[in-house]
Amino acid sequence: xxxxxxxxxxxxxxxxxxxxxxxxxxxxxxxxxxxxxxxxxxxxxxxxxxxxxxxxxxxxxxxxxxxxxxxxxxxxxxxxxxxxxxxxxxxxxxxxxxxxxxxxxxxxxxxxxxxxxxxxxxxxxxxxxxxxxxxxxxxxxxxxxxxxxxxxxxxxxxxxxxxxxxxxxxxxxxxxxxxxxxxxxxxxxxxxxxxxxxxxxxxxxxxxxxxxxxxxxxxxxxxxxxxxxxxxxxxxxxxxxxxxxxxxxxxxxxxxxxxxxxxxxxxxxxxxxxxxxxxxxxxxxxx
Length: 287
Ligand SMILES: [Zn+2]
Hints:
Layout: H1 4-18, H2 24-29, E1 33-36, H3 43-50, E2 55-58, H4 69-82, E3 86-89, H5 107-136, E4 140-146, H6 155-160, E5 165-170, E6 188-193, H7 196-203, H8 229-262, H9 267-273, H10 275-285
Parallel strand pairs: 1-2, 1-3, 3-4
Antiparallel strand pairs: 4-6, 5-6
Bound molecules: zinc ion (ZN).
C-alpha cells in the first residue's frame, strides 16, 4: 500500500494531467466571471456573485478605457493573470446603432460619427483579442450587441465570431418593461458565445408575439441598454449549473479512477486522500 503522501501526490499529478495548462494555485485563484464594459453595479455580475462566484467588473468607472491601447493592455493583463472561466463583453454600440441613419443628412454629425466609429473599431479589436486569449486557456467568452447593430458586420467581430455560436433573443421574453408604461419592450439582442448550450437556451427566448410592445423613442434607448434582471439570472444560472456539474463530475471521476486503481480499503483513507479535490470544489463555490 503506497503512503498517504504518495497517494496525495499521485492525485495531484492526475489533476495536473487533466488540465495541464493550470497549476492548482491558478485553479484556486482564478476569477469565475469577468464582465467587461459594464457599469459599477451591473446586475449580471451581481447575480453571479449571489451564486457564490468570484467576479470582476471592468469599465470606464474603474479606469479601463477600451477605446485606447492602454486600456486594452490593462484588460489583457487582468485576463492573463486571473484567467476568468467566463468573460462577458458588451462593447459600446453607440457608433453602430440604426438610429445613426437619421443623422446622415448633417455633415457635422456625420464627421462625429466617423470619429466615433474609428474609436469603436479599436474597442472591437480589443474584444477580439480578449476572446482569443480566453479561448486559448479553455475559458468561455460571450459578446453582446443589439441584433441590428452594424458592428456585427465589422471585420473584427466577423473574425471573432468564426468560432462562436450566435443566439438571438428579445428583451420582452425576459420581462424587459418600460418603467412608466409598464409595457414590454421587444428589444432584440444577440450574444455570440463559445458556449453552444447557452446559445441554444437563449434562442428559446424570442418574442412570443402575443402581447403589445412599448415602442422605443430616442429618449428610451439608453434606458433599455441595462439587461433585465431575469436575463441576468438566466445567464448566471446557466453558468453556475455548467460549472457546478463539471466540478462535481470531475471530482467523482477522480474518485472512481483512484478507487479502482489503488484498491483503497476504507472510506476514511479515501476522504483524506481526496481532500485535495474536494477542497478545490469548496473553494470554487464557497467564495
Ligand atoms: Zn414581445
